[in-house]
Amino acid sequence: MSGRSAGFRFIPGGTTIEETAVDYQLIIKVAPFFAKAAWSTVVVSFLSFALGLSIAFPAAFCRLSQNRFLQIPARVYVSVFRGTPCLIQLFVIYFGGPQIGIQLEPFMAGVLGLGINIGSYMTESIRGAILAVSRGQTEASRSLGLNKFQTMRKVVLPQAAGLMISPLGVNTIALIKGSSLVSAISVLELAYTAHRFTNSTYRPFEMFILASTFYLVIITLTSKAIRNLNGRFAYEK
Amino acid sequence: MISLKDIWKSFGDNQVLKGISLEVERGKILVIIGPSGSGKSTLLRSINHLETIDRGEIWVDGVQVNAPLKGRKFEKHINRVRQEMGMVFQHFNLFPHMTVMENITMAPMLLKKIPREKADAQARGLLEKVDLADKMNCYPVQLSGGQKQRVAIARALAMEPKVMLFDEVTSALDPELIGEVNKVMKRLASEHMTMLIVTHEMRFAAEVADHVIFMADGVIIEEGPPEEIFSNPAHERTRRFLFEVFKS
Ligand SMILES: Nc1ncnc2c1ncn2[C@@H]1O[C@H](COP(=O)(O)OP(=O)(O)OP(=O)(O)O)[C@@H](O)[C@H]1O
Ligand SMILES: [Mg+2]
């Protein structure tokens, strides 16, 4: 440990050890708080993910529907939430909400904002996967006499499921990183914790590197899970 | 069994079918030949209502396929009608996430509520008929083109259709695999299945057809028994087409 920090000891310009060296003691001391915050990031991300998916599936079907009364609202939803910054959406919900009688805790506002936001991206991922199943598949199914719903359930969705895992995975990774935005509405997650400890210790480098490490671990594990899931759907074409 | 009356169909400005009428009697085989883009696929797909025609009537076994019904009523009607027709496509369109067995049993089990054991037994019989009894647990990706197409035929037959529609089912196959698919179709012919076949294979057409239609630019140029069309065509257009085909 001390051998490693030796490299930081003499910096050109003559600054002192105390100001520039990485303080490992401090890192170890605050790490448990960050671990707790990381769990909070996981929870926020997971709930937003679940909310996003449960919006995205119906929205994708509406988007694909011939019925304009279903299609147009879904289209508007997607373009509004993909076309504006997530941070502003969170502000509208958290700060703007009370003005129209919706008062939410930071945590709830954060999950709601992130979930609705990522749902718009997921809608497009799901829609893309469904459209990527070849037309010939639908035609073969319909020509056997299956109706639209049976065709969707038996033929299109099982194939689309495999195709949507990768894009939904990309959305999920983006969601986890984007969850740091809820620090701006004071949700006690990783980014917020790093901020707070920076203010009390004046050690931004340590704090943000530590936060990054936790993000990296979460994202690496998530990526691995996505790859596994993808592998399971790889019945060859 | 199949009766088309004055079928018209356009894609935008492109008038693809211009008043096609034809009849196929029960147990007979009609082969449609003609140059690329003449509307053969469109005609076949219209019979299965995969394309919606602009004008005319399509009758299969006494039922009007394009019945003047609206919305949900028509949906119900067409799903019922389609169960009576088997369609086989150029590119097989097998369901890649299902085994050969599941490909064949899915529709009968779902639509006719046939119990699994019975559906499986029927599928085994059909696979024997297309010489693929040993492939029932394979996935489509593990099969050759010719094998895929024979499974596709078995899948269509599993609904016990009254007519079978074949749209250039051998033209995506390597030459050495064409024979095995043609053999299966001939076997069906010998069992008096009513069939409407679109093909570029004149030799096969001549062998199986009861009646041949030569189509070009959305109209029937000439029709008759195969001996007549192939050895003594009346129209210049037919002669030129056959000359081109046999030259290659
Ligand atoms: N979905 C579609 N939209 C627009 N045009 C189409 C569509 N399907 C077919 N066509 C056009 O209709 C015409 C007839 O096509 P069709 O596929 O019926 O011909 P074909 O006789 O089957 O040709 P081939 O021997 O090449 O299969 C062509 O000009 C084609 O471009
Ligand atoms: Mg064609």
In the residues of chain A, how many domains can be counted? 1
The largest sheet of chain B has its strands arranged as 6-7-8-3-9-10
Low-confidence stretches of chain B: none
- CATH class call of chain A: Mainly Alpha
Order of helices and strands of chain A: HHHHHHHHHH
Helical content band of chain A? over 70%
Describe this structure in words.
The complex is a heterodimer of chains A (237) and B (248). Chain A is mostly helical and 237 residues long. Chain A contains 10 helices and no strands. The N terminus of chain A is likely disordered. Chain B is α/β, with parallel strands linked by helices. Chain B is 41% helix and 24% strand. Chain B contains 9 helices and 10 strands. A 6-stranded mixed sheet of chain B has the order 6-7-8-3-9-10, sandwiched between helices. In chain B, strands 2-1-4-5 form a 4-stranded antiparallel sheet, covered by helices on one side. The longest helix of chain B is centred in the last third of the chain and has 16 residues. The two termini of chain B are 35 Å apart. The interface between A and B is medium-sized, with 22 and 27 residues. Magnesium ion binds next to helix 1 of chain B. The site of adenosine-5'-triphosphate has 12 residues of chain B, from strand 2 and helix 1.
Summarize the structure.
The complex is a heterodimer of chains A (237) and B (248). Chain A has 237 residues and is an all-alpha fold. In chain A, 78% of the residues lie in helices and 0% in strands.
